[in-house]
Amino acid sequence: MKAKIERLKEEVKKSDKMKEEEKEQALSKIHEWYIEDKAEEKNVLGKELLKISSEIAPILEEIGLV
Q: How many Å apart are CA 41 and CA 62, to the nearest integer?
């Protein structure tokens, strides 16, 4: 799972479709959930990230987190 989380973070940083504020919010949420070990609950994390920006959907699908 750690590899998927790291890839997710990199893809969010590289995204040209997400606003900078959305990227910051998403990265913060990813970090928070990873620290709290909630990242294992992939559907929950994906849903939370989609609340920040729908543009993250293709990234989540590619990595297999939705």
A: 17
What's the pLDDT tens digit per position in 4-62? 889 999 999 999 999 999 999 999 998 887 776 665 555 678 888 899 999 999 998 88
Cα-to-chain-centroid distance, residue 42: 10
Contact 59, 7 (CB under 8 A): no
The Cα–Cα gap between 25 and 31 comes to 10
Contact 63, 57 (CB under 8 A): no
- State which H helix or E strand residue 53 sits in: none
Q: What is the pTM of this model?
A: 0.74
* CA distance linking residue 35 with residue 31, whole number of Å: 6
